[in-house]
Each structure stands twice: as C-alpha cells, then as structure tokens.
Specification:
There is one protein chain. Strands 3, 5, 6, 9, 10, 17 and 18 form a seven-stranded mixed beta sheet that branches. 29% of the residues lie in helices and 27% in strands. With 371 residues, the protein is an alpha/beta fold. Helix 4 packs across helix 5. It is built from eleven helices and 18 strands. The chain is globular, with a radius of gyration of 20 Å. It has two domains: 222 residues, Quinone Oxidoreductase, Chain A, domain 1; 129 residues, NAD(P)-binding Rossmann-like Domain (Rossmann fold, 3-Layer(aba) Sandwich), CATH 3.40.50.
C-alpha cells in the first residue's frame, strides 16, 4: 500500500515529500493511519546532523492515529482502535522492562539507533525499491506506518487526535521529569532552562505539583510568553541576564530546589546545575549530541550534596502514564489547548520546522491526512 511521507535523505537538506510503499504488518505488528504528528526538536536534531542516523529515514516520533491492520498474534488492539505510538517501545521481557523502567527497553533502544524493526528489516520502500529506515520505530511523518504492537497504546475515541499527539511526547516527557525523575513538593522552587515544547510541560507539571516559584529561562521572548500561560511565575531572558546569577537573586542566594534543562546544550546543563541549591536536584531532559560534554563542579556534587540525573521519556511507564495524562486533561488539570500553536498539512512540514527554529510556536502538528 502506498502513502505520502516526508523522507530525509541527507542531513541539512529539506525533507522530501514522496509516495512510499508501506509493507503490511508481520507477526506482532500493526499498521496505523496517522492523523496527527508532532513537530519536535528531537527530529530537528537528526535533520541538522546533530544526532547522526543512517538514511534515508522517515522521521516523526510523536503522533496519534487509527489502527488499520494487525498482524498475526496481536491482541492489545484491533482495526479501528485509536492509538498513540510509543517512540520507546517496550518489549516487556528485557531487564529494564521487568524492572519497571520500560523507557530504557533494550529492544526500543536498538530500534532508535538502527532504524530497523526488531527483525532487522524495514517496512518502507521508495519508488526505486530501496528500504527506508524507521525513526524511533514509529515514523509518524507518513500517512501510514507499520510498527510493533509494543509501540502503540490504545486510547479512548473521545480524545482528539491533536490532543493525543501532544501527549505522546512533549507532555509525557515534561510531566514525567517532574513527577518521576525527582521530587517537586508543594511550596518548592523550580527553574526551567529552555521553554520549548518539553520545557513548557515541565512548567505546567511543576504548577500541578504545587511549586510556588517557577522560573522560566529562555533567549526568545515569545517562549517566555508561552511559559507565563503554562504557569511560570518568574522570567529570565538569558540573552540579557546571566541565568545563574538571576536565579540566585530570585531565591535569596540559595538557588532552586529543582532545576530542569530542556535544551540539550552543555552550557545550559552547566547553568542548570549551578543554579541548583545545596541538596537540590538537577534533571537533564534535553537531547544532546553524542559528543556533548558538560563541565560539572564535582566539589559541589559532594560538598553541596547535589543530585544530577537524566530523564528519557519522562522516566515513565507509557502504557499507564499516557492514559493517566488523558484523565488529567479531561478533568482540567493539564492544559493542551494552550500548547498547540499551529497545524500544517504534511506537504508543509519543512515550513513547520522553519517556524520551530524561529521560535514562533509552542508546539505545532502536521496533519498527514489533510489535503
């Protein structure tokens, strides 16, 4: 079956819109007709060559769609079910899955780095008959995508595809960083370095947790405006003020209880660590290039008893936490409408990424079925 997809053939070149062949699902696989896909910085890192990947590849890891066909042995979903793809699938059998940390699944990790399905093959072909790789196992920048059963979660049909797509990466990653990767008790102080899609959800999750001082830090004024909407209480334009000193000024010289880095830059990681108070926790959420090294004051790590940790996919259990987030949205605890700035047809995906780079959006979506 053919579908329109955005294919990356070479870093630093535009995504190429073309018809691709999408092979039917094999055993323990499903084919999903994508209805919405998130425009995320993680894909941009691959497009710019910061995260090396073999090519050609169909990017996209955040989305929502409808199951169209299932392979032999699939039991958790059926054709017609609405689903959110999990960009870190869990096999349910490896050391990490059995230990309650499915975001670290060995199978999901291998898919992320190889671009191949668990059987070592791909399910996409271009017009020349060449194999096209999968991104994070789900490749949501295609109208149709074949993926493992372990990479989808069934959701209620009452949830819009646009809301579901937002939850699938940006929301769950930010929410989990606050709720799972560290302890943000009521009355605590929080700083968020980087107010893109992930940072904004860290901010609203810190508000939900009861933090009373939430400091948003970014170089782009419009992103600080979005941060205000999501619940930030204080704002630092990093192009005008040194962030660490500014945070110390706002906290009586102490620093914050919890600092979150949501960019993936060495300088930002160092700043987040330095603005963390004694006994506090710094959580790195941003995706950095494989060779990025941050300079950490080890003396502070010991004498100040700081904690430095990373968090992938919000350190969540997606099969449980995605449904939990849907419930939180339905009862008004999580704001999704303020996150969604623009939607684009798949044919305008390069324009969508240009707007993301310019800092014009909080979060945007491409709608693959839109004409």
């Amino acid at each position: 079956m053919e579908a329109l997809a955005a294919v990356l053939y070479q870093a630093n070149e535009p995504l190429r819109l073309e018809q691709v062949e999408v092979l039917p699902p094999g055993p323990a696989e499903v084919r999903v007709r994508m209805q919405a896909a998130g425009v995320c910085h993680s894909d941009l890192h691959v497009m710019k060559g910061d995260l090396p990947m073999k090519m050609p590849i169909i990017l996209g890891h955040e989305g929502a769609g409808i199951v169209e066909e299932i392979g032999r042995g699939v039991t958790s979903v059926k054709p017609g079910d609405h689903v959110i793809p999990i960009w870190r699938m869990s096999c349910g059998q490896c050391y990490y899955c059995l230990g309650g940390r499915p975001a670290l699944c060995d199978v999901g990790t291998a898919m992320r780095f190889t671009g191949l399905m668990p059987d070592g093959q791909t399910r996409f072909r271009n017009a020349a008959g060449e194999s096209i790789l999968h991104y994070a196992g789900v490749s949501t920048f295609s109208q149709l995508s074949t993926m493992p059963e372990g990479a989808v979660v069934k959701i209620p049909e009452s949830v819009s595809f646009e809301h579901a797509a937002l939850i699938g990466c940006g929301v769950i990653t930010g929410f989990g960083a606050v709720m799972n990767a560290t302890n943000v008790p009521a009355g605590s102080t929080v700083a968020v370095v980087g107010c893109g899609g992930i940072g904004l959800n860290i901010i609203q999750s810190a508000r939900l947790a009861g933090a009373t001082k939430i400091i948003a830090i970014d170089r782009v004024p419009s992103k600080l405006d979005y941060a205000r909407t999501m619940g930030a209480t204080h704002f630092i334009n990093a192009s005008e003020h040194e962030p660490v000193a500014a945070v110390k000024d706002l906290t009586g010289g102490l620093g914050v209880d919890n600092a979150f880095e949501a960019i993936g830059l060495a300088e930002a990681i160092e700043q987040a660590y330095d603005m963390t108070r004694k006994g506090g926790t710094c959580v790195v959420v941003g995706i950095a290039g494989p060779d990025v090294r941050a300079r950490i004051n080890v003396n502070q790590l010991v004498y100040a008893e700081k904690t430095l940790r990373g968090s992938i996919y919000g350190s969540t259990r997606p099969r449980l936490d995605l449904l939990r987030l849907i419930e939180l949205h339905e009862c008004g605890k999580i704001d999704l409408d303020s996150l969604l700035t623009r939607t684009y047809p798949l044919s305008e995906i390069n324009e969508a990424y240009a707007a993301l780079e310019r800092g014009e959006v909080a979060r945007s979506l491409v709608l693959p079925q839109m004409g």
